[in-house]
Amino acid sequence: MHKMPRIWLHYAQLLASSRRVTRARRVCDRALMSLPATQHERVWEVYIRFVGQKHVPTDTALRVWRRYVRFDPAAAEDFVELLERRGRPGEAAAQLARCLDTDKFMSVRNRSRHEMWGQLTDLITAHPAEAKEAGLKVDAILRSGIATHGDKGGAGRLWAGLADYYIRSAAFDRARDVFEEALAGVRTVADFSLVFDAYAQFEESMITALLEAQGEDGAAAGANGGGGVGEGEWRLENYGPELDLDLHMARLESLMDRRPELLSDVRLRQNPNNVHEWRKRVKLFEGDGARQVRTYTQAVKTVEPAKAVGQLGALWAEFAKFYEAHGDATNARVVLKKATQVKYRTVDELATVWCEAAELELRQKDYQGALALCRGALRDLAEGIQYPQSALRKNLKLWGFCLDLEESLASFGEVRKAYERVLDLRIATPQIVLNFAAYMEEHKYFEESFKLFERGVALFRYPQVKEIWATYLRKFVARYGGAKLERARDLFEQALAAAPADESRPIYLEYGQLEEKHGLAKHAMGVYRRGARGVAEKDRRGMYEHYIARAADLYGATKTREIYEEAIESDLLTEADVRQLCRRYAQLEKSLGEIDRARAIFVSAASLADPSGGAEFWADWNAFEVAHGNEETFREMLRIKRSVSTAYASTAVMTAPTPADAAKGAAGASAPAPAAATQAATAPSGGDAMAALEAAGG
User: Fold this and answer.
1) Which residue range or ranges hold the Pre-mRNA-splicing factor Syf1/CRNKL1-like C-terminal HAT-repeats domain (predicted)?
2) Which of 414, 469, 638, 672 is the most exposed place for a label (fewest CB within 10 A)?
């Protein structure tokens, strides 16, 4: 029955439980030779459990495990753990290195390759001698891991492990070289921090060891009676000839001083197109002009304009200003000339560079040179010129700068030509139109100025054209007054036709003032009346109040009665606005001595004044009755107030949800209707409504 696995398994388990190591091992080997390969997994399960017992010698267990790993490579991690537990770190590192060298190896413990590299690094650095005995090429192995994970981050731990390996092997110069290479090669700030801290700790430990060695040397000299110690009578083990304390102190200080520069190197390795980091790097070398120039030069050569993070044009401008600050305007011009040929991502960056070039000439007192630069930048280029240079002639930023220079330095004809070109290119803004018109007015070309306003209002729409219309109307009226009244009226009508309701109030007011000053009062009243109806709802009451005030000044207070009545009876105002106008109307009648008319206004407007929201109205009426009424009129006011209050309360109750509606939305919640609502609901539909409401209110 040598082909039956069950017999072999029982036999092996019996021998293993009897602690017969040699016989159990031989039986397991015979079972593996007798049974087919498809049954070996069952035998290996018993075999591995047997050699894992404490009484099985380590060499036997390891030999069995080596055979098992060849059968099942996925068990390599368990084998590594066993080797560490049995005190074989060198072989464990070798086995782990073989796993990492296999591209298809997959961890059965769901560990990443980076974690496995970390474990290998820890094994090698903790046991360098055993790693050498195992025949591991530590340097090559760890460098392969660094090459694999360097770009992804996480290489700092491997670099620190490699340096630690050389430190434990007493190869301190080699360890220092590894640290320097790591600082020059890591690509993430986290890796840099790890390597830098390990490097600093290494130098500090060297200094500490030297101080301790010198202290021991001094103590030995004292014990010998102060006779001193001859050369070679003591040495610091594992530190070789590195006993120069001042040298190590200088190295540590230099390392700390270099940290900002090294960190900048790391960030630029991450993204060499980071303009912000290049500008920070220049500041690191403040006071060292040569280093700053080299840094600027390296930056402008390295950064790719299409991939730049930040304003590349600003970097070029700072480079030029650096030369200018040191009195070298010639090189500053050379830098800016090269900067204007760069293919920036946006036209604004290129325009900024041209503006900087012109400002440099202005600072050098070469005003015509600055103007010539701007004109050259904005000229029409030949076909074939690529973006952004091809689009520079339509850049508003550069045109604005150029127009300022034209106005300051050029003749009237050249300035006018420049403005006309901006309008022809159809890139003008409302502010440019206003500036052009103001320039023409300043040189006494008034009609030309008004033509520019006409072009402006034709080019733009609200809200951009608002300021153009306002300036146009103001300038025209100030220039001609009533001399060209019909033309002024036409302009105001055009402005009103173009303006939306919420922007028309200022135009109506200016139009009315024009008619008052240069036209007819009747026309002015017509304008104000149109304005009261044509402006937005939020401006209507204010427009009516202005209309009333102007009517009172022009025709007297009695003329305003018609306006008050028209405003109150119209549907244009809100209830709150009507209530306020009624208060003003009543005050007017009271000032004219028309007490009955004033009281009638209060009575008429009472239905719009909810006592809870119209407290000012009722306070005015109360003060009016106290001053001019009697007991009967005061009682009538109170009766009307109660009636209005009841009416508003009834309306609120009737518009509230019924119990049935509330039950649908609140799962059966209900509330009894107020008595006032019941009485209001049962009141007769005909007859005096005020009497019915008064009856409902008790």
Assistant:
1) 305-695
2) 672
pLDDT at 606 over 80: no
Tell me which residue of 611, 615, 638, 614 sits closest to 626, measured CA to CA.
638
> How far is Cα 89 from Cα 121, in angstroms, rounded to an integer?
12
Given a cut of 70, whether residue 665 has pLDDT beyond it is no
Tokens, residue 494: 């055009």
Q: What does the DSSP 8-state code read for residue 350?
A: H
Q: Return all residues near 241 (Cβ < 8 A) that are at least 6 apart.
A: none
Instruction: Tell me, letter by letter, the H, E, C secondary structure of 606-660.
Output: HHHCCCCCCHHHHHHHHHHHHHHCCHHHHHHHHHHHHHHHHHHHHHHHHHCCCHH
* 386 band by pLDDT with thresholds 50, 70 and 90: low
- Give the whole-angstrom CA distance, residue 408 versus residue 403: 9
- What are the domain boundaries of the chain? 5-214
> What's the residue count for the chain?
698
- Of 520, 522, 491, give the one whose Cα is nearest residue 507: 491
Residue appearing with tokens 């997959």: 106
Task: Describe the crossing of helices 21-34 and 58-71 by its angle, rounded to 10 degrees.
Answer: 20
Span of 45-54, 473-482, 648-657 with lowest mean pLDDT = 648-657
- Band (pLDDT 50/70/90 cuts) for residue 687 is very low
| C-beta contacts of 555-560 below 8 A and 24+ residues apart | 555/521, 557/588, 557/591, 557/592, 558/592, 560/588
CA–CA separation, 110 vs 122, rounded Å?
19
Confidence of residue 381 (pLDDT cuts 50, 70, 90): low
Predicted confidence (pLDDT) at residue 133 exceeds the cutoff of 50: yes
pLDDT band of 297, cuts 50, 70, 90:
very high
User: 71 with 44: CB under 8 angstroms?
Assistant: yes
CA proximity to 239, closest of 288, 292, 171, 307: 171
Q: What is the pLDDT of residue 152?
A: 63
How crowded is residue 75: how many other Cβ atoms within 10 Å of its Cβ? 17
pTM over 0.85? The answer is no
Residue owning tokens 């099942």: 72
Q: How confident is the model at residue 165 (pLDDT cuts 50, 70, 90)?
A: confident
Q: Using the 8-state DSSP alphabet, how is residue 252 labeled?
A: H
- In the numeric block, which tokens belong to residue 651? 């309306």
User: CA-to-CA distance for 649 and 676, rounded, in angstroms?
Assistant: 8
CB neighbours (10 Å) of residue 215?
10
Banded model confidence at residue 671, pLDDT cuts 50, 70, 90: very low
| Under 8 Å between Cβ of 317 and 356 | yes
Beta carbons of 505 and 543 less than 8 angstroms apart: yes
User: CATH classification of 5-214, choosing from 1.25.40, 1.20.1740, 2.60.40, 3.30.460?
Assistant: 1.25.40
What is the per-residue pLDDT for 218?
Answer: 55
Q: What is the pLDDT, as a whole number, of residue 695?
A: 45
Of 318, 393, 317, 330, the C-alpha closest to 357 is 317
Alpha helices in 556-594 (DSSP H): 560-569, 575-591
Rounded to the nearest 10°, the torsion over CA 494, 499, 504, 509 is -20
Question: In terms of Cα–Cα distance, which of 199, 214, 217, 218 is closest to 245?
Answer: 214
